[in-house]
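Supplementary Methods, section 5.1.

A reviewer requested that the exact input to the structure prediction be made available. We therefore reproduce it here, unchanged from the version used in the analyses.
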Amino acid sequence: MFVDEVRVVVKAGRGGDGSCSFRREMFVPRGGPDGGDGGNGGDVVFVASHRLTTLLDLRYQKHYEAEDGRHGGASNCTGRRGKSVIVTLPVGTVIYDDETGDVLADLVADGDEAVIAQGGRGGRGNGNFATSTNRVPTYFEHGKDGEEKHLRLELKLLADVGLVGFPNAGKSTLIAAISAARPKIADYPFTTLIPNLGVVRWGSDRSFVVADIPGLIEGASEGKGLGFQFLRHIERTAFLLHLIDVSEWAQEEPVTSFEIMRQELDAYDATLNKRPFAIVATKVDISGKSDRLSQLQAYCKRRKYKCFAVSAATREGLDELIAFVGKKVDSIRNTPCETNS
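The structure derived from this sequence is encoded token-by-token as follows.
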């Protein structure tokens, strides 16, 4: 099961209390205060790992609580620090404060970690308060409470290329044809309910990652269809491929389909339409006598958009498409830019 959004509650450990104690030892009169400090509470730490691909584990365990610090003891003994809780997340997870909406951390690389809830500080023992005028302090500090937070975790896939298109535009078929990914393929809408990743190899030793995103429909930016569950996963892609069905059985006109897709992207996040893209006309092997492909190619020529006509079934045009996308991705990788959020 693919889970890309969960809500959890985390609570760091409370700091241990300081100790109020006096040295009592034979032949040591008036030994003075020797109460030790309490230990700090444990933290709640999130760590990114490439071994995970979903937030499924956090769906079943929604509460994470670190250990409290131990109290201080006599003879200036400091209490033990509470054990921290380490929570492992898939790479690409964004951690939000569910109450304020603030982004607390964005784990974009394997091994990235963030302390989300800080453990409480341990209290000081009475040995810290002895002065020349107060040689017998009888007070100490209590430990501080650890932080408690309600979090919302979102997984946003990390891929070089995102496939965008209406349901049944041929996204799953294309990613299966150009990579080793094997998504579900069927002749009904919304076959893809979860994103699929595929590694596409080109040249002698080069590759790029493609994300097959669930089908987009008009109104997705308002939550229709799979709504935000679809749109969130293209936020990190650097290059977009707009797949348009040009077969004679397609319901929408090709130009209309493309314009609706661009409108939905702009309504969700205006920066998405500023990213480089290309248009891919799919299912050209079953286009019949339809002039839909010609209409789309003429439209792209007027707008100076790059357009490819492909068939995943016969592999027509796939080599040219892979080479173009590979070069484009290499160019983007070598261009310094801000990390996509």
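The chain has a mean pLDDT of 84. These observations are discussed further in the main text.
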